[in-house]
Amino acid sequence: MQIGLVGLQFSGKTTLFNTLSSNASHSQSNKEEATVEVVKVPDERLDNCSKIFNPKKQVNATIEVFDIPGLRMSEDNKVKITNSFLTAVRNNDALFYVIRAFKDESIVHPMNTIDPARDIEFLETEFLFSDIAFLENRLEKIKKDMLKSKDERLKKELPLIEKLFQHAEKELPLRTLELDETEIKILSGYQLLTLKPLVIAVNYDESSIATVDEEIKKLKSKFEKSGAEFIPFFAKIEYELSQMTEEDRQIFMQDYGIKESALSKILRTSYQMLGLQSFFTVGEDECRAWTIKKNFTAQQAAGVIHTDFFNKFIRAEVVHYDDFIKYGSFAKCKDAGVWRLEGKEYIVKDGDILNIRHN
């Protein structure tokens, strides 16, 4: 899974990225395109399993986070969207607009004033224009190709592209259009910008802690047709938190009235948007979190561990994390009737602990 951080220059995007990077396993940098970090997904459930089994290794789930270079003012004193910027944005499964709401006279906003609603509208409009241009060109090409060929795929694609084009012309992002699995599959190679799941992360300063809920409520109301999730965060505070011990972090968050860190919010929201969840494998050698799509069967989940497990699947031993913690061991879970054997069609739940039986 890849998420891209997008925003204007001096929005706090890179500070947020550095906060996420404090939990990274390795990094890779390309200033012309994006800075990339593979970030461990914190999971208290996995930590608790490791405390019980004391394994040789704990393996968290990971996501890739891309810090896409911030948009700057051009020579004609306008913020300009470049092709290289759009290419970097397209290569992500979900997008996070990082929007500036903090005030700092020493850091000049590219548009000279602080206006979160304006910045959100600017990004949405530019990305929508890009999608409209692509769809218009694609429509022309399909119609030309259909004169030369009787390709059935083109006949299926034409009404879909027309539907998207008409929706985008109403100034509505494509993520708000209901599509079935077949249509999503047809569009998968096109990387349309406003079709991607979107989170709008608004960066406040500590003076706004008391009013942030009301401010976010206003933005949600204004952009209710965007199909986006909204997350308020405090970049400077979050970065300080990322450098602290767990004990100090909890005290600091309590003092500032912060209930959840930006890292947890971003990762949790990313999973929800992309329809993902985690299951666990546990033992003395390793405790590991595995990322799967919601509604995956036990056999499909087994295939994520190893392809042989999918092909030679027999049964899955299953107990949910909550039950395992409640009873304290697999033996006690069996006695309580919450440990069970499931077949290949069993739908795996978020937090299930699995042991795969296979040939």
UniProtKB/TrEMBL annotation:
It holds the Pfam family YchF-GTPase_C. Residues 275-358 form the TGS domain. Keywords: ATP-binding, Metal-binding, Nucleotide-binding. One of its GO terms (cellular component) is cytoplasm. The keyword Metal-binding applies. One of its GO terms (molecular function) is GTP binding. Its cofactor is Mg(2+). This is Redox-regulated ATPase YchF.
